[in-house]
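Preliminary data (for renewal application), zinc ion complex.
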Amino acid sequence: MTPPRTTLPGDAAPPAGMIACHDCDLLLVRPAHTARLCCPRCEARLDSGSRHSPEASLALVVAGLIVLCIANLYPVVGLDANGVRSATTLVGCATTLMHQDMTLIGLLVLFTAIAVPTFELCTQLYLLLPLNLGYRPPGFALLMRLIRTVHPWGMVEVFLLGTLVALVKLAHLARVEPGIGLWSFFALILLMAANASRFDPVLLWERYAACRPLR
Ligand SMILES: [Zn+2]
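Predicted structure:
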């Protein structure tokens, strides 16, 4: 006799009335009421939906986009060496790298510190705004997959760590002035970390199922 299945193959969705543990894939019967639900096998908490609402995610995404704009419009750092002042934005850093025969590094900075965070935040805005208004955004499944694929390539924090090391080393040669862009990138890291910790695909799919198609 074949034993009953307790885990899901690949990315298969759990059957109706069931919930899959996001840590160990154990299938559980979904309780009728929203009481605290923990996985009996790995003790992961499974009722995150009561705390992580799409409304809060939308607020974090909008705040993240505003901060991202400020971070890219204002200088990251300013230098004052013997009266000669210079300041540059993140895009300026990347284009300077490309002009100094470091095209690959420049493109990598543009991709990981600007393109990926911008794509991630814009896509989440595109998905969350209609869902909060009760409509299904077209291309929902494809974009949910793309967000998961692209997310590991967002490396704003790595860029900032490198910037801080460079600033400490440059402090002996010139007067270093951290710009509004640098502080904005710090705020962006906090907002994106808070957003990533709240991003719950299961909750979004449930909201998607409850919404009506966009005509
Ligand atoms: Zn589990």
